[in-house]
Amino acid sequence: MAWGHTGSPTRLRKARQALSARKLMVIVFWDAQGILLIECMTRGTTINSEVYCRTLKKLKRAIQNKRRGLLSSGVVLLHDNTRTHTAVRTGEVLLKFKWDVFQHPPYIPDLAPSDFHLFTAMKKWLGGQHFADDEELKNAVTHWLKSQAAAFYAEVIDEEDCEVCLDILKDLEEIDEEANLFGVKFVKVKEPTAGVQWGVHSVPTLAYFRKGVPAFYEGSLSDPEGVLDWLTSQDMIELRNEIEEVSRKMLDKLLQENDFITIFFCEHNFSHPLSMVN
């Protein structure tokens, strides 16, 4: 933008911004029930691991006060992979708290709910507003965050489906029927913490449970035929010191793949334990 008046020189001077845009940093922790902790940082504060660890300690106290029983039942923290979050000091604090960290793969919006849901809505609300000072801004932001209904926070955690997961599910549905013939059943679990006890800290993940023990697929989940080959491979059906029961389809495959195999034919309801070497 430029301005001038009668008698001004031909070369006009550009308007100079008197005051550069100022930003206030806010750290927010929340869950499906609402806000857990809001911490407005002093202007000029650098968020390093030391500062972040102090904030985590405040978060622990907030959880203790606002979510009774959660600390004992287990906390799963979702934050991105910035250097502050992955620092050794941060890891030591989280280990001391016995909190699990839900891994944050890049480029998956569903695992960045603060960026793509919370802060997007806040940005729209802030648009066009002016505040006299930092204190007025802090109060306004804090009030807005706390005034949002629980449904606002729950919708992105409880209802939204991961687009990547949906695409993979469509691929897996192509082999669901055939896998069932081999005695392999597919189920899906959307609860983020459901797999933590088995070491599942990122999604999407495919696990095949044999007698309660999971085996994790390391190939491409977008390759349904590769998944089926893995699920029906001998490595997957073999259990140590135990004779596996197989379906007719799996039996046919085993006979095709093995020149020598011992088969024990028994009654339908037979469940007596055996010790045999195949």
Automatic annotation (TrEMBL):
Keywords: Methyltransferase, Transferase. It holds the Pfam family Transposase_1. GO terms for molecular function: methyltransferase activity; nucleic acid binding. It comes from the Eukaryota. Transmembrane segments: none annotated. GO terms for biological process: methylation. CDD domains: TRX_family. This is Histone-lysine N-methyltransferase SETMAR. It comes from Araneus ventricosus (Orbweaver spider).
